[in-house]
Write a structure and sequence with these properties.
Elements: H1 2-19, E1 24-27, H2 30-34, E2 42-45, E3 48-51, H3 68-85, E4 94-101, H4 107-117, E5 124-129, E6 139-146
Parallel strand pairs: 4-5
Antiparallel strand pairs: 1-2, 2-3, 3-6, 4-6
Helix pairs in contact: 3-4
Length: 149
C-alpha cells in the first residue's frame, strides 16, 4: 500500500509540474453525451490522457455485459481501446492503472486476464476492494495513457 501511495504522489508531482501550463481537453463520447452521464470519458492535458473509471458496459446502452469479472474485464479493455484509438493513443501507451474490485478474492482471475493485455511492460498499478461499484459491477478500472506524438 505504501508503494502505491508513493507512486501516485510521484506521478502527480511530475504530472502537475509538467502540465501546469497545459489546457484540459474534455473527451466526451457520443454515447456518454446521449445518455447524459455526469462525467467525461477522459480528460487530456498535454500528452497525458486521464481516463475515467471504466466499467464492462456496452457503449450503446451503458449496460454491464453478462459473464461476471471475466467478461467485464475484457469489455473494459475493449472500451479503453476504442477510447484511446479515437484520441491518438493505444492500450500499449497506458502507464498507470487503478483497479477497483467488488470482491478482492477475484484478484487472481482479474490478473490472468490483465496480463494478456500487457504481455511486456506492465503499467504502475494500484488495486483495492470496494464496497459496491456502479451498476453492480465486479470490476472498474481507471488508467492514464500518453497520446502519440
Amino acid at each position: 500500500m505504501q508503494n502505491s501511495i508513493l507512486i501516485a504522489i510521484l506521478l502527480l508531482t511530475a504530472c502537475s509540474s509538467a502540465l501546469a501550463d497545459q489546457k484540459a481537453h474534455y473527451i466526451v463520447s457520443e454515447q456518454t453525451a446521449a445518455l447524459n452521464l455526469p462525467f467525461s470519458d477522459a480528460v487530456q492535458v498535454g500528452d497525458i490522457i486521464f481516463m475515467s473509471g471504466t466499467l464492462g458496459v456496452t457503449s450503446a446502452k451503458f449496460k454491464l455485459v453478462e459473464g461476471g469479472i471475466t467478461q467485464e474485464t475484457h469489455q473494459i479493455f475493449a472500451n479503453m481501446k476504442s477510447l484511446l484509438e479515437a484520441n491518438n493513443s493505444s492500450l500499449n501507451r497506458i502507464f498507470k492503472c487503478t483497479v477497483m474490485m467488488r470482491d478482492i478474492a477475484q484478484w487472481p482471475t482479474f490478473n490472468e486476464i490483465y496480463v494478456t493485455y500487457f504481455p511486456d511492460d506492465k503499467p504502475a498499478r494500484s488495486a483495492f476492494g470496494a464496497n459496491g461499484l456502479a451498476l453492480g459491477a465486479e470490476v472498474e478500472m481507471e488508467c492514464w495513457a500518453t497520446a502519440i506524438d
